[in-house]
Prior knowledge:
Blueprint: H1 2-10, H2 14-21, E1 38-40, E2 51-53, H3 63-79, H4 103-110, H5 137-147, E3 164-165, E4 170-171, H6 194-221, H7 227-231
Antiparallel strand pairs: 1-2, 3-4
The structure holds flavin-adenine dinucleotide.
Amino acid sequence: MKSVMRYPHNQQPSALADNINNAMDILVLQHEANSRGFVEAQSLDPAQPPRVSANYFADKEKRDYHNQWRGIQELLKIAGTKAMEPWVGRKTEVPIPDAALSEGLKCALLGEGIRGTVSQDNPYTVIPCLPLEPATNEEWDAWFKEHHVSSYHYFGTAPYGTVLEGREFTVKGTTGLHVVDASIFPNPTRVNPQHMIMAMGHYLGTMLGYREAGHAALKSKVVGVPATHAEA
Ligand SMILES: Cc1cc2nc3c(=O)[nH]c(=O)nc-3n(C[C@H](O)[C@H](O)[C@H](O)COP(=O)(O)OP(=O)(O)OC[C@H]3O[C@@H](n4cnc5c(N)ncnc54)[C@H](O)[C@@H]3O)c2cc1C
């Protein structure tokens, strides 16, 4: 993918292309988000899509903002180390007409120096541009809100303990209604969740199969039965 990604950048004037190709995309992964979103049924008709809100940065104590800010400051420190020198692009004064660059690229590649302001800019080529320091908490908060991305790992819309109970992940107050997918995790996993979701699915499928089919049938037919059940 790298060569494909570089293609549009290489269409830029060469001094800029070099800079863009060395640009950093600073990313702080938020493994333990404190904000909580929701998925809410809008109708009893299953064809009607639910209302979904991820509610990023909703945490009242602002822990998610704080963790993001702390992470970015640490990354900038790392970017400034000797070891990173060959890998980190620096903003340069490139003689190019203002009109040729979008605002987003101007501040990322040339720095605020081009506007005649005293540059308190960080010296690195970071896209999207970071707030100019000293930035207020509000400016940082606005920057995070504008630029955060989701990594597609959603959890907890039918959490165990709140919505589900028991060893068969039964919806509270029901019989025979079980849930097993990413929604059952009360808290986000710190690593990619797919294996855990599949393991849980296998666990519950085995449990229900065990109960339905009876011990003898399971012992002879179902592959991968946990040892405790096979031996019981
Ligand atoms: C782009 C992307 C990349 C990812 N990369 C990784 C990765 O590298 N590693 C990792 O561990 N995780 C990754 N994830 C996360 C992982 O894919 C999810 O956490 C996981 O698939 C969730 O499993 P699930 O069973 O809860 O839901 P899903 O896998 O989303 O399954 C839900 C299923 O229900 C079906 N469905 C929905 N509505 C209905 C309906 N009304 N009737 C019948 N069926 C319905 C859907 O079609 C779907 O097949 C990624 C996710 C995305 C989007």
